[in-house]
Design a protein that fits this description.
Elements lengths: L1 H8 L4 H21 L7 H25 L6 H14 L5 H21 L1 E2 L2 E2 L3 H13 L14 H15 L2 H22 L3 H10 L3 H9 L9 H14 L5 E2 L2 E2 L2 H15 L4 E13 L2 E8 L10 E5 L11 E5 L9 E6 L6 H7 L6 E8 L12 E6 L4 H13 L5 E7 L8 H11 L2 E6 L11 E3 L4 H7 L7 E5 L2 H13 L7 E3 L7
Helix pairs in contact: 2-3, 2-4, 2-7, 3-4, 3-5, 4-5, 5-6, 6-12, 7-10, 8-9, 8-11, 11-12, 14-15
């Protein structure tokens, strides 16, 4: 079942999954309103959504041109729909001011409260906080406070968690929220069961966690800081608990968490001018960019690459890709796998000409070399999963840093092998060995330098007899990564010695 769900989720970017989730909640609310299951008038709800979307789109256009910043229509619709699901639908003329200013502030916040053209606060959260302080009008998170909608909020939200794989952040968030809630009930002598039911079924906790807490652009980019971030927001989001004599709200809790994330996270946005695009291997391409500046990053990390283009498909205009270059290189490299029937994004990328621009933002990821250079490592790369290892190996070569590493590089056929220049350089200068594995039956015949697949436990033991003493790094398609994790577990390799590559929206 989970493989089937993953196969569906992997067809879409993270942003599209969130967008479709919000659209689904909106449509369900409309239907329930039409049949009298919930008390909200579907005509009012439609009017609210139309007005907020229109104001959000127009405001975003104005500010994006004024600040000369790239715009993304998915982000506009996501923000507008969240506002629609938080502000209770009422008579349009009575609610017009609330709708208008909430949308304007949310969109403007992306440009005004920004650093290096990246917004600091969750747009909806900061809009709600400003509206509350300025006008005393508050959002009541109606979609999260309607019990009949709870199953859709919850189970749809789990799909977002599955897509993002931010379980550690949400575990800290929900765990601390539950602990503080229970502690508060015990201390104040409340009814434990009734309060817990009301808090979880009639509060915004799940919607806040699944949809807003997980937003990548306003959250920390490394695992441990994300856990602290989740715990902080979880503690502050508990109702009826005062901090420094003041009750917080869910939106204020998130804004405070955003401040924490901003204080510890490098916010980089790089403008990239295409120098050259070239074929690396079968259906594999390299794009060489000249950056307006080289951001600080560790070899193996990724960024969000934005390429606005017409008629974008379900995968959208923003994608997460590993930085294929090393911090020691002046050029910025992107390596991708692309097929004729591929996404509109990759088609647009392949059609870019010299001098054309795109942006990359927010360095992130924990798939980096261990600090201890004495640690013995095994790199396992599947196809284009070689890109983080290309960055690492090039860095080690340029820094003349010797490490004990064995690389297993899996491809179906020899024609798919990329970055042989860096692999050879790492071998010649540092003694790092690469085992080329061709998984297509018969593909290794005639290639004495290659092993025929599959890459199983016996093959790993053959080339790495001391595998139990090594840390494994695995990068490639989800299915391959999962299969190797299971295999290494059966071989007795502790989980703490296995690091896998992941970035949101892998597809």
């Amino acid at each position: 079942m989970m493989k089937f769900i993953d196969s569906i989720l992997n067809r879409f970017t993270m942003y599209r999954v969130v967008l479709y989730y919000l659209i689904g909640l909106f449509v369900i609310a409309l239907l329930f309103g039409a049949f009298g299951i919930i008390a909200y008038n579907p005509a009012y709800l439609l009017a609210e959504a139309a007005f907020i979307i229109a104001v959000s789109w127009l405001t975003n256009e104005i500010f994006s041109r004024a600040f000369n910043a790239p715009t993304n229509v998915e982000s506009v619709y996501i923000t507008a729909l969240i506002l629609t699901l938080l502000i209770t639908p009422g008579k349009p003329m009575e609610m017009m001011g609330m709708y208008f200013w909430s949308a304007v502030i949310a969109m403007a916040a992306k440009y005004i409260f920004a650093f290096k053209k990246q917004h600091i606060f969750n747009p909806v959260a900061i809009a709600a906080v400003i509206m509350a302080f300025a006008t005393n009008q508050v959002v009541d998170w109606w979609v999260a406070g309607t019990p009949v909608l709870f199953p859709f909020v919850f189970f749809g939200g789990l799909l977002i968690v599955r897509k993002l794989k931010r379980t550690e952040t949400l575990a800290a968030f929900f765990g601390v929220f539950a602990f503080v809630t229970v502690a508060n009930i015990v201390i104040n002598g409340g009814n434990l069961l009734t309060t817990i039911v009301n808090v979880f079924l009639r509060s915004p906790i799940f919607f806040l966690g699944f949809v807003m807490l997980t937003e990548p652009l306003t959250a920390p980019t490394r695992k441990i800081p994300r856990i602290v971030y989740g715990a902080l927001v979880g503690a502050l989001a508990v109702p009826s608990v005062k901090y420094f004599g003041m009750n917080t709200t869910p939106e204020l809790a998130l804004v405070i968490g955003n401040v924490f994330a901003f204080s510890i996270t490098a916010r980089d946005r790089v403008m990239l001018s295409l120098r050259k695009a070239q074929s690396l291997a079968l259906n594999t391409y390299e794009f060489i960019f000249h950056p307006d500046r080289v951001p600080k990053f560790h070899p193996g990390q990724y960024m969000e690459w934005t390429l606005p283009h017409e008629k974008s498909d379900s995968r959208g205009t923003r994608r997460y890709f590993t930085i294929a270059s090393s911090p020691t290189e002046k050029d910025f490299l992107l390596g991708i796998k692309a097929f004729p029937e591929g996404s509109s994004y990759k088609k647009a990328l392949l059609q870019m000409g010299g001098g054309e621009m795109m942006t990359a933002a927010q360095v992130a990821g924990d798939f980096i070399l261990p600090k201890d250079p004495k640690k013995k490592l095994v790199f396992i790369a599947g196809g284009i999963g070689i890109t983080p290892f290309r960055s690492m190996l090039k860095y080690l070569v340029d820094m003349n840093e010797h490490r004990d590493i064995v690389v297993f590089y899996l491809n179906k056929v020899a024609g798919e092998i990329a970055y042989t220049d860096v692999l050879e350089e790492a071998s010649n200068k540092l003694g790092i060995r690469t085992v080329f594995v061709l998984t297509d039956p018969g593909a290794a015949k005639g290639h004495v330098w290659a092993e025929g697949g599959p890459c199983d436990a016996a093959m790993i033991q053959k080339y790495v007899p001391d595998f139990n003493a090594r840390t494994f790094y695995i990068s490639g398609p989800h299915g391959m990564v999962d299969a190797f994790e299971r295999m290494l577990t059966t071989m007795g390799v502790p989980k703490k010695q296995v690091t896998v590559d992941f970035f949101p929206g892998f597809a």
